[in-house]
Specification:
With 434 residues, the protein is of the alpha/beta class. It folds into two domains: 2-69 and 274-433, EreA/ChaN-like  fold, CATH 3.40.1660.10; 143-266, de novo design (two linked rop proteins). It is built from 17 helices and eleven strands. The protein has helices at residues 2-13, 24-30, 46-63, 74-84, 93-97, 111-125, 143-157, 162-172, 180-188, 196-208, 219-239, 247-266, 278-281, 297-304, 345-351, 388-391, 398-401, and strands spanning 15-16, 35-38, 67-70, 134-137, 272-275, 311-324, 333-337, 357-360, 374-377, 393-396, 404-411. The strands form two sheets. Strands 1, 2, 3, 4, 5, 6, 7, 8 and 11 form a nine-stranded mixed sheet that branches. Strands 9-10 form a two-stranded antiparallel sheet. β6 and β7 form a beta hairpin.
């Protein structure tokens, strides 16, 4: 009986969401925020990209949002940002995105993302250079790429720091092509040497010389961020084998610090949009993550930046298809996403019979029917559909986890660049990104 009452309540308060013209209520709701976090329930779903694109375009053009920060590597997205902000005339969106070579490549090297990059490039061509919107990576994984970017830059612009940079890079070189994972395994074998001192020294030296890196407006930011990545990535990989450290918290802490650095760089009145998985943007305190002492970006934003009036939008679907791998590093596959389990959030939304819909969580916040945790699906880059009931549902107090939620009843897999795509055959939502 309670289940039926929940469905009836959701049916009354939810808003239909069939086309871009239905976003007005949500965009108005988000417009008074300076920090909008847009989630996704997987890293391989077409609709999550296109709806985030449609929302972001409205926030940029109608409400002056300054940049987008995503769950991706800094060096890769620095190249994208240089392209969309017209710092370089070389290449095009396809060429820039095809340079993403870290697994899972489909997460950003996809045709949905190419369409948004094209739109951002064209938008920036119409505004003054200081008002151009960039897109930046928040993640911590790019240890080697960041070290190599530092050395390439110093060779030309600041040779005096090259010895420190080469010492730091040289410390990691014995760990071979697997890089961070090999470094982590070396800790498991109780090797006493770490590279912590080398990267901390390099970060200190770069911060002291930061002013000299201003060959253009973002060069100093890029150098300092790569140095922070080197330091934090070393700690992250070391923590993977430590019983006393939480690698999840190190990663989300790094992403939060990077977001703060970007807000500071863009000025005291800057406005940011964040694209990350629901597990990073949905407040961890409303899930069972809190039992493990885990925090995430959504929680940290609410705790430390309430003055920015942050708003969190979650995404999910009832069934469909998704791109994922059977294990880490495995070939990507188009996988079937089964119907959500009975009693889950996705099942309740589906049973309203309203299809694609939008829910504002303030409409549920005072309702005792929604005060307890409910299963909420989360799909990662590694996915096993037939076993999803065992590990893909996160107990969540939904009105506390998000400020709003977009439910897409049936979703399609994202379209990776490695697969040939006849753009005329892409779903109707695809043109929104242009």
């Amino acid at each position: 009986m309670t289940m039926d009452k929940k469905i009836a309540k959701l049916q009354r308060i939810s808003h239909p969401l069939e086309g871009e013209e239905d976003l007005g209520l949500l965009v108005d709701f988000l417009s008074d925020s300076r920090l909008v976090l847009l989630g996704e329930a997987s890293h391989g779903t077409h609709e999550y990209y296109t709806w985030r694109t449609a929302i972001s375009k409205r926030l940029i053009t109608d409400h002056g949002f300054n940049f987008i920060a995503v769950e991706g590597d800094w060096p890769d997205f620095y190249r994208v940002s240089r392209y969309v902000k017209h710092y370089t005339e070389n290449g095009d969106a396809v060429q820039v995105l095809r340079e993403f070579n870290r697994w899972p490549t489909w997460m950003w090297a996809n045709w949905e993302m190419e369409a948004f990059v094209n739109w951002l490039f064209e938008h920036n061509a119409r505004v003054p250079s200081l008002e151009r919107v960039g897109i930046y990576g928040l993640d911590v994984y790019s240890l080697w790429e960041s070290m190599e970017a530092i050395i390439d830059y110093l060779m030309v612009h600041e040779p005096s720091l090259l010895p420190a940079a080469k010492r730091a890079l040289g410390c990691f070189e014995p760990f071979g092509d697997e890089k961070g994972l090999a470094y982590a395994r070396s800790m498991r074998r109780f090797m006493p040497k770490t590279c912590e001192n080398e990267v901390v020294t390099l970060l200190r030296d770069i911060k002291q010389r930061a002013a000299s890196f201003n060959t253009d407006i973002e060069a100093s930011l890029n150098m300092e961020q790569n140095a922070h990545i080197a330091k934090n990535a070393e700690s992250y990989y070391r923590s993977m084998v430590s019983v006393n450290q939480n690698s999840w918290n190190l990663r989300d802490g790094h992403m939060m610090e990077t977001l703060q650095r970007l807000l500071h760089f863009h000025g005291p009145d800057s406005k940011a949009i964040v694209w990350e998985h629901n597990t990073h943007v949905g407040d961890a305190r409303a899930t069972d993550m809190v039992l493990e002492g885990s925090v995430n970006v959504g929680q940290l934003v609410r705790e430390h930046h309430s003055g920015l009036n942050p708003k969190i939008v979650g995404f999910g679907s009832y069934m469909g298809t998704v791109v994922a791998g059977a294990e880490w590093g495995a070939p990507m596959r188009n996988m079937h996403v089964p119907q959500a389990v009975p009693g889950s959030w996705e099942s309740l939304m589906h049973r309203t019979g309203k299809g694609n819909q939008l829910v504002f969580m303030h409409d549920l916040a005072q309702d005792p029917m929604f005060k307890d945790p409910i299963p909420h699906r989360a799909i990662g880059v590694v996915y096993h559909p037939k076993y999803e009931q065992l590990g893909n549902y996160v107990p969540s107090i939904m009105p506390k986890r998000y400020d709003a939620f977009i439910h897409i009843d049936t979703t399609e897999a994202v379209h990776p660049m490695t697969m040939f795509v006849d753009r005329s055959q892409l779903p109707e939502t695809y043109p929104w990104a242009f």
